[in-house]
Amino acid sequence: MSEQQAVLQQFRETIHKIKSYEEALGLLYWDLRTGAPRKGMDTRSESIGMVSGEMFKLSTSPQLGEWLSALEEKGSFEELTEIDQRLVSETRKEYDRSVKIPPKLYQEYVVAAAQSENKWEEAKAQNDFKGFQPYLEKVISYTNQFIDLWGAKATRYDTLLDQYEPGMTVSQLDKVFGDLRDKLVPLSAAIAASPHQPDTGFLRQSFDKSAQKSFSLYILEQMGYDFEAGRLDESAHPFATGLNPGDVRITTRYLENDVTSALFGTIHEGGHALYEQNIMAELTNTTLCTGTSMGIHESQSRFWENVIGRSRPFWERYFGELQSRFPGQLDVSVDQFYRGNNIVSPSLIRIEADELTYNLHIIIRYEMEKLIFDGGAKVSDLPELWNEKYKQYLGITPPSDAEGVLQDVHWSGGAFGYFPSYSLGNMYAAQFADTMEKELEGMWSLVGRGELLPIKEWLSERIYKYGKLRSPSELVQSVTGKPLDPQCLVDYLTKKYTDIYKL
Amino acid sequence: MSEQQAVLQQFRETIHKIKSYEEALGLLYWDLRTGAPRKGMDTRSESIGMVSGEMFKLSTSPQLGEWLSALEEKGSFEELTEIDQRLVSETRKEYDRSVKIPPKLYQEYVVAAAQSENKWEEAKAQNDFKGFQPYLEKVISYTNQFIDLWGAKATRYDTLLDQYEPGMTVSQLDKVFGDLRDKLVPLSAAIAASPHQPDTGFLRQSFDKSAQKSFSLYILEQMGYDFEAGRLDESAHPFATGLNPGDVRITTRYLENDVTSALFGTIHEGGHALYEQNIMAELTNTTLCTGTSMGIHESQSRFWENVIGRSRPFWERYFGELQSRFPGQLDVSVDQFYRGNNIVSPSLIRIEADELTYNLHIIIRYEMEKLIFDGGAKVSDLPELWNEKYKQYLGITPPSDAEGVLQDVHWSGGAFGYFPSYSLGNMYAAQFADTMEKELEGMWSLVGRGELLPIKEWLSERIYKYGKLRSPSELVQSVTGKPLDPQCLVDYLTKKYTDIYKL
């Protein structure tokens, strides 16, 4: 074995170890959120802390740094396979990011973030922004220290964005979000002014939970979710977690008085899961065996939930089956049902927002995060700023901070730069759908016949199988032949809602 | 902080880490056996291997050896608390055992044992002892190398016994098993000759699984199993696993045509779980936070399953409730039901054996293990030896090796010295019950009224809370005022079956 081969083997073994730790941690968390007994949680948290700590130690070890340098040497790097090259460059990126933060500072931050999350929960319940303010200030101060240590890019906020959407910048987002905002605000207003508002009353009844569950399982199966490589459980907040490509679990939450909440939640998480179940086998046991970014991951959950699951052909195929599971309860036409599940209406709470106005919630948060890190906004100004933007973009004013600036957990835990992923997901999804319509003949007829597997196959071949082997921008370019283009989402929404609201 | 305090702190942190790894591994295994998707199992096994390897590295690190030596120094050791002293001596024992085996040899053994287990499964299905023989020989050869490395005690087999029942010896077991055998063989014969054989026909019907489950849950609750510190799931082979004292899980398996199989299985695992749920908080996060030996652990499962769960007072209290869950199906008297659940009859298969003859199955295996490691028996002789002993002690001859020497998985995986734990459990259970009857006033009236919590409390105070803080022999002596005494089991069985079979 040559020296380079020996280094590569040790490097790959370390990556495999990190991945095994991730699998163990993934299961420890999954279990906490699905059914771990209450009294074991404190000790469990300590175990999670220990395993995370060992993983962090391994990911930042000087030995790993040496192997990386050896593999990056001119001459050496070029001899690596495409997968190994990407593994080296991705690991380098993570390595540099991690070793730049002194362990002590990071530990202080973890404690501060945990305290801040706890305080946020209390502050939200009591509508007490003032009480939360010092905690949030502390978390922001740590985040600013991290930006200094990592090094600011073109803007300080760019450094944060790059954590979740590698390569994404304020310069690019200002443009796409600007376009989006300029077009969605008037579209939203036109919808609000339409006399053709859908009826949603029939959706609010008592719907048997086991029938909801069996329908959710049926739709997952139709989507091509592999139940031999996953399972569906319940949790307070639905999520998907890929322990390995043969074990990608999802959870949902059944609401008795809402027949589609759990279903759309399941389809959403199912979309995340299809991504992780279909990554090429060559990436198993490497850190490339996951979605390439939060935005691309979100594009898959939203593609399945919104583009497919809230489409007219989908319900033309499946509404009869849903009706038959709730005899006498859904005595409406397919059209009424389809329109009832696609109402657009400005609202206060992001996670309850519709497919269109959701993006305005995100743009507000994006603009505020920029103000925090690059615009000199003070934490004490955030509630007022928030309310102004809601008035401006959505035409409504939160009656309380609990329903305003305090509604999301993200900032309390330091997840700045994450929010844009959600709208990026919507934009990527629409752009992928646009290409799919052109390439996959009769795509909507397939959906109308319940033949969803060719759709899953197309996504697997074009997107899923690559895992982290392609960056988000490489992926979008290679699949759609152009960079991120917000017009696809605008067109998709305009077409859809012009029909529904007869604009 | 003094130097000793600093060493102690680092030592305790390492022990805590080992315990956290154990928790993660415990969950990874629990998940594999209760519901992990099939396609993820290969990668899961690799993750388990990695985490086990890291734990082993930590448990055998030279650094840990240095801390142990420092803490054992004259003067230092005496200043430690009772818990720390025990932690040091237990860790030393494990440490010495582990470091004496070269890692390479151990890895070879793990592979050989896994291959042998696979082959055993096939050989049992095909009744092919000859095909299994070379695999078993290999596992025995590794075991003999381990005995040489660890150092043989008074006998070679003593070294194996000590792994599962610390301090137990052939010299002691020969005596107690000899007494037991001499008294149980004639008792078993007298029972077989009795004209008063219980009826069991009514037990074989189709019993609704959900009703079985709800009754099992009810009985667990009656026993004082804490559902906020555990959960009940299903698996092919029932087991209990203590991840931490606040998370002690059990599994069971429901048989449609047997109304008590799952129930007694649940009570059995519930007994194991009560032990682990009630260990004193001071031992949490240490390796003393578990049962003190396999035999003592088994005494608790068997105490609850047999001594309590198969007693007349228990069914006088609970039979009505069982009847009401299966309307029209259990139309017999309490006496008939009680006797039907306590038949004694020599049989071929250990895990299906009754409370009395079970011990003869164990004594046979004990005698054979002695012959393998100290008596020069060849593997090729085992089937014949097995059949001779079954003829001698149980009066029956296996019609095939599949129902004879191939029935148990233990030897294939190298678990020599484990079998005696089961009968030790029966003996300890009877001896503890004997003391409980004297100390806990009206014990059987409590059972007859369904007041099981005082029984759980007594066991917690006398046994459970100590975890591994007392050795098996210290525990038996302190609880019952005498060493292990097989006469308690003989007396218990004689009294019980003299009544049932009207001897």
TrEMBL record, chains A, B:
CDD domains: M32_Taq. Zn(2+) binds at residues 268, 272, 298. It is an enzyme of class 3 (hydrolase). This is Metal-dependent carboxypeptidase. Coiled coil: none annotated. One of its GO terms (biological process) is proteolysis. The keyword Metal-binding applies. It catalyses: Release of a C-terminal amino acid with broad specificity, except for -Pro. Binds 1 zinc ion per subunit. The active site is at 269 (proton donor/acceptor). Its cofactor is Zn(2+). GO terms for molecular function: metallocarboxypeptidase activity; zinc ion binding. Keywords: Carboxypeptidase, Hydrolase, Metal-binding, Metalloprotease, Protease, Zinc. The keyword Hydrolase applies. Belongs to the peptidase M32 family. Pfam families: Peptidase_M32 (PF02074). Broad specificity carboxypetidase that releases amino acids sequentially from the C-terminus, including neutral, aromatic, polar and basic residues. Its EC number is 3.4.17.19.
